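Hi V.,

Quick status before I head out on leave. The structure for the redesign project is tokenized and pasted below; the design run finished overnight.
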């Protein structure tokens, strides 16, 4: 039985992300439901609300032997699978989401297919020293891919805060 604790994503019933997080809390299961700070305006007022960043997803930090307990949680539909197994998510990616949300508001997600483009390193700001693949740079907007999740986070980052990572070319031997 594998006792190594890893981050996983679970699908939830629609609009149940916060409820699932509450149920997991009651069970003592470590979880993370990223909440996006959003300004909403109605005809009579403006209000700041916190809504789940990833619709129908909650992240859990458990060992394999706890998967059944997670699946038995009200509102959880299933794990997110990759190549036939629950997809493990790197700690660094969960930390990047936490850091990103602590410094940005009104974050937008776009579902994206993974592509290989220029590898970059952030040189300043909340994601300093993080490396990743950029899929688009326009004016000040940088789209960074977190491969395990298959989503793109969009934030306003100055071009001067990004440097291209150069890789050594492998010499071909004849």
């Amino acid at each position: 039985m594998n006792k190594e604790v890893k981050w996983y994503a679970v699908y939830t019933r629609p609009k149940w992300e916060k409820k699932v997080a509450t149920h997991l809390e009651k069970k003592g299961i470590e979880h993370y439901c990223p909440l996006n700070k959003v300004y909403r305006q109605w005809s009579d007022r403006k209000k700041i609300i916190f809504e789940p960043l990833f619709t129908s997803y909650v992240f859990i930090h458990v060992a394999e032997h706890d998967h059944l307990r997670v699946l038995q949680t009200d509102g959880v539909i299933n794990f997110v699978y990759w190549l036939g197994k629950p997809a493990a998510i790197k700690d660094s990616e969960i930390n990047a989401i936490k850091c990103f949300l602590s410094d940005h508001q009104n974050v937008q997600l776009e579902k994206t297919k993974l592509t290989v483009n220029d590898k970059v390193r952030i040189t300043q700001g909340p994601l300093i020293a993080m490396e990743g693949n950029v899929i688009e740079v326009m004016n000040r907007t940088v789209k960074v891919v977190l491969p395990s999740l298959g989503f793109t986070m969009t934030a306003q980052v100055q071009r001067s805060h990004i440097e291209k990572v150069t890789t050594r070319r492998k010499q071909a031997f004849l």
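Above is the designed sequence. The chain has two domains: 1-89, 104-167.

G. will cover questions while I'm gone.

Best,
W.
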